[in-house]
Amino acid sequence: MTDDPAAPTEPAGLLGPADVRRLSAALGVRPTKTLGQNFVHDAGTVRRIVRSAAVGPDDVVLEVGPGLGSLTLALLETGARVIAVEIDPPLARALPVTVAARMPEAAGRLAVLQADAMTVTGPEVLPAPGGGDGVAPTKLVANLPYNVAVPVLLTLLENLPSLREVLVMVQAEVADRIAAPPGSRTYGVPSVKAAWYAEAARAGTISRTVFWPVPNVDSALVRLTRREPPETTATREDVFAVVDAAFAQRRKTLRAALAGWAGSAPAAEEVLRAAGIDPGLRGERLGITDYARIAQHARSAGAPGARSGTLGA
Residue limits of the Ribosomal RNA adenine methylase transferase N-terminal domain (predicted)? Predict the structure, then answer.
């Protein structure tokens, strides 16, 4: 066996369990809960993810949290160009070395940005695979850090309109919340805000055994397909402000939950009725189009709550 920790031990060049541990030891890296790190070590799993995302040679794929490179290598195997955003400096430095050693023909199709994905404000901050001017990514395929999955996802959908397709691995509970329809038990802020940008659906489950270390939670894939936001004169910030207010007290009726946002309960009721929404409903019954209508009527009425909402969950 070679002394180079980045050198392949399998013909395909993908990472197996022994490779992941060997690379981690060579880099002096231990997965941390703070960064939400659990490294995938199963070639079949990463290939399944790539197939499900329908990644091909024409794609420019954004990967967040590549870690040791398991999914990165599988993405590059398709001929796609990959932009990897890694917050951990040692991992960011090591990723190009790993790719060059295990899949040298693909090294020129990888660009790495050492940064927090929450700071990606647009395509201009992303490096281009092979150098040159920035390239707008077409797909997001990633094993997202579980502790920040929703805000990272929403931030990238907002700041990178070129992303048309998303397939991400997240905690199973989070996948349920993102893909939940109105009225379901898991429907909430992530569901509504994701629906502003895309249509979301569960796309399968991932066994705990393919990770190192083995996580204490189940994982799942969620797919998002970009669509146009609802037609409205309200801004995205206006709409998200209504969503935040409605779910801050989700067991209350909209009349009560939106009282602080609108200035008073009667003012909230007036806006709701103008928007054609029953004030006695709870926020979990409304879809993104309903929230857009409320925000539009609030803005027209000059309600105090017509203010910015967050990209958080």
Answer: 45-228
Evaluate whether 91 touches 27 at the Cβ level (below 8 Å): yes
In the predicted model, is pLDDT for residue 10 greater than 50? no
Cis amide leading into 213 (omega within 30): yes
Annotated binding site: 38, 40, 65, 86, 116, 143
**Domain segments of the chain: what residues?**
17-226, 236-301
Count Cβ atoms within 10 A of the Cβ of residue 248 and give its class: 0-12 exposed, 13-18 middle, 19 or more buried.
middle
Going by the annotation, the residues of the binding site for S-adenosyl-L-methionine are 38, 40, 65, 86, 116, 143
pLDDT (tens digit, 9 = 90+) per residue, 252-286? Answer: 999 999 999 999 999 999 999 999 999 999 999 99
The residues pairing with 282 across neighbouring beta strands, listed in sequence order, are 253
φ/ψ (deg, to 5) at 228: -70, 145
Q: With a cut of 60, say whether residue 34 has pLDDT above it.
A: no
8 A C-beta contact, residue 38 and residue 211: yes
pTM listed for this prediction: 0.91
* Secondary structure element (H or E) that encloses residue 84, with its range: strand 81-86
Question: Tell me, which fold does domain 236-301 have in CATH?
Answer: Helicase, Ruva Protein; domain 3 (1.10.8)
DSSP class of 132: S
Q: Following DSSP, what letter does each residue of 13-72 receive, concatenated?
A: ----HHHHHHHHHHHT----TTTT--EE--HHHHHHHHHHTT--TT-EEEEE--TTSHHH
CA distances from 125 to 59, 76, 141, 249 (A): 19, 21, 18, 38
- CATH architecture of the domain with residue range 17-226: 3-Layer(aba) Sandwich (3.40)
In angstroms, what is the C-alpha Rg of the chain?
21
Mean per-residue pLDDT of the chain: 92
Element (H, E) at 200: strand 198-206
pLDDT of residue 87: 95
